[in-house]
Amino acid sequence: MSEPKKIIEISGLDWLKGISTHPYIPVGGLFQQATNFNPFNRPGIYFPSQAASTIGTGVILDEIRSMTSYVSSAVAGVSFVLGFSKNTRLYRIRTDNMSVENLSTRIANDGGWGSIIFKNKIVYAGSTTLTANSIPIPRVSAEVSLLTLDNAYQHKPHIGPDRNLYVPNKSNVARVTSVTGTTGNSASFLAFEDDVIVRGLSDDGIHLIIVGDTNSATNPTVSAVGLYRCFVAFWNMKSQDLTRIWEFKDNGVFGVQVVEDEVIIHGQTNIYTCSINSKPRVLMPKTNNTNITSGPPEPGSLVKMGDNVALWGDGVKNIYGYGRISPHLPKSFFHLHEIANNQTYSLFYDGGATDKLIAAFGSAALYAFTGTTTANQTSTTKIAGIDFKQPYEFSFAKVILSQKLSAGQSVDLEILTDEGDNTVLRKTDGTANSFSHTNFPGKKSHIFYPYPGTQAASSIAVFEDLSDIQIRNIGASVRRVEIWGKPLRPDQDVYK
User: Fold this and answer.
1) What is the edge-to-edge ordering of all strands in the sheet holding 158-159?
2) What DSSP line would sit under 69-121, residue for residue?
3) Residue 100 and residue 132: Cα distance in Å, rounded?
4) H/E element holding 244?
5) SS3 breakdown of the chain: % helix, strand, coil, rounded to 5?
6) Residue 140, Cβ density class (10 Å: 0-12 exposed, 13-18 middle, ≥19 buried)
7) Residue 235: pLDDT above 80?
8) What digits encode the pLDDT tens for the residues 81-97?
9) Residue 19 in contact with residue 291, Cβ under 8 Å?
10) Distant-in-sequence, close-in-space partners of 382: CB < 8 Å, separation ≥ 6
């Protein structure tokens, strides 16, 4: 009988490989699922993301669609987040204690279509009006109208490399140079064809980056199925001439972000990557048996975590990310949070020692994710399918932690084959074989043997491929996962 050999090890840089494009092969990443896992929280360690805590209950009356922050001179070292809804409501969140105030009586114009701090003013866009107001406390008497906007299209503002403010405005890009009135501001500083809708803006430090499409709907998701002309354009902000424009086909686009030298375009059927020198190509497909089947992001959910990591909400319950925190690490496509709610409307990230993320969801739900949260968050990773090219008999699996289990923490495994139809190692949570603090207090490693006498009727010990290797981690710091098996002669069939 042959001795067991290690056939899989997940450790070190493996934890940073991110989500694979497809479930059956580890292409573009290692995991077909990796919920509530920020690989850059503790690089090289599998540790769940921060847990969420609800804030603003009873104060928040509707969905916050855009958020921006300022530092208060009255409260030293404390930043405040201003959140706008599309119902002319304004909320203020204090980031040191996450208390929330309703300041809706202090504005008369809507700001739910986008907001930003510009020239020491809070500038916010409604469906038809761009407004400037005072900070730290906005006042109705201080509101100044800067532009009239085309109704119901995206208007998320962005400060360009020339330090002027730019706003998507249907088939135009508006420019704002003054926050004291309309003089000098233009609603159509750059004009596209009449059938074009500008969907989002960003920049690469030299050019303003513009994405748009010819889908006539104010929101492409309500349009009839079809492919439309979509584009990403690079503009020097000086004339009507574009430095570069790349065109591609999709149902529509929803926004643009820049991660180092990559331009990330959010489309209906794909997420694309490009640069001024390279055409858009698919970074992550969202159709045809992909691991990401998410909906389009709301404009307010497109934010950055530092300079090199993009975050976005997917239009349902998920928050995704792409990038890296250091050039010494690989870029990763990851699933930061999953919240049981109906839509991610806006995000705000405030870096620093406490690493705060604020997320607004449907049903007027507002959550805070902070680095100081002590609750044990649950993360589930599932490795993309692996074909070993020869048969093995399962021997055992091993989990090694970087620190001992503490109260409430556990790590459980499940291993399946035959596209999930047969079980190699049955799910361990809730059993005496579960690697939990209750069963094994203070332990740092654990061996998972086939659980005697309780395997499911569909259990099988011999396999040539593993379709699902699921790790369920509640609050633990996993350094390494190993799977061991005995090599078998290749001249045999694998069957039940």
Assistant:
1) 158-159, 165-169, 172-176, 186-191
2) EEE-SSSTT-EEEEEEETTS-EEEEETTTTEEEE-GGG-SS--TTEEEEETTE
3) 22
4) strand 242-250
5) 5, 50, 50
6) exposed
7) yes
8) 999 999 999 999 998 88
9) yes
10) 31, 32, 33, 34, 468, 469, 470, 471
Q: Token digits for 99?
A: 């208390």
pLDDT of residue 373: 53
pTM across the whole model: 0.92
**233, two tokens:** 């354009």
* Residue spans of beta strands (DSSP E) within 344-492: 344-350, 356-361, 365-369, 378-383, 386-401, 410-417, 422-425, 435-436, 445-448, 462-466, 468-474, 478-487
Q: What pLDDT, on the 0 to 100 scale, is given for residue 353? A: 55
Q: Which amino acid does the sequence have at 410?
A: S
Domain boundaries for CATH 2.60.120 within the chain:
5-48+379-487
Q: What is the pLDDT of residues 458-467, one digit of tens each?
A: 567 889 999 9
Q: Which residues of the chain are in CATH 2.130.10.10 domains?
A: 52-374
Q: Summarize pLDDT for 375-403 with one digit per residue, the tens.
A: 678 999 999 999 999 999 999 999 999 99
Q: What CATH number is given for 52-374 in this structure?
A: 2.130.10.10
177-227 per-position pLDDT tens digit: 999 999 999 999 999 999 999 999 999 999 999 999 999 888 776 666 789
Residue 97 tokens, joined = 């204690």
Contact call for residues 252 and 218 (beta carbons, < 8 A):
no
CA distances from 207 to 115, 157, 229, 244, 275 (A): 21, 15, 22, 10, 11
Q: Are 81 and 68 in contact (CB under 8 A)?
A: yes
Residue 306 in this model has a pLDDT that exceeds 90: no
Confidence at 454, pLDDT banded by 50, 70, 90: very low
DSSP state of 459: B
Residue that the structure tokens 């998920």 belong to: 318
The fold of 5-48+379-487 is Jelly Rolls (2.60.120)
Q: What percent of the chain has pLDDT over 70?
A: 94
Dig out the tokens for 301 from the structure.
Answer: 């959910």
Coil, strand or helix at 288: coil
Token couple for 32: 């077909």
> Largest alpha-carbon pair distance within the chain?
86
pLDDT surpassing 70 at residue 122: yes
Q: Who's near 250: CB < 8 A, 6+ residues apart? A: 213, 227, 228, 230, 267, 268, 269, 270
Please, are residues 321 and 336 in contact by the beta-carbon 8 Å criterion? yes
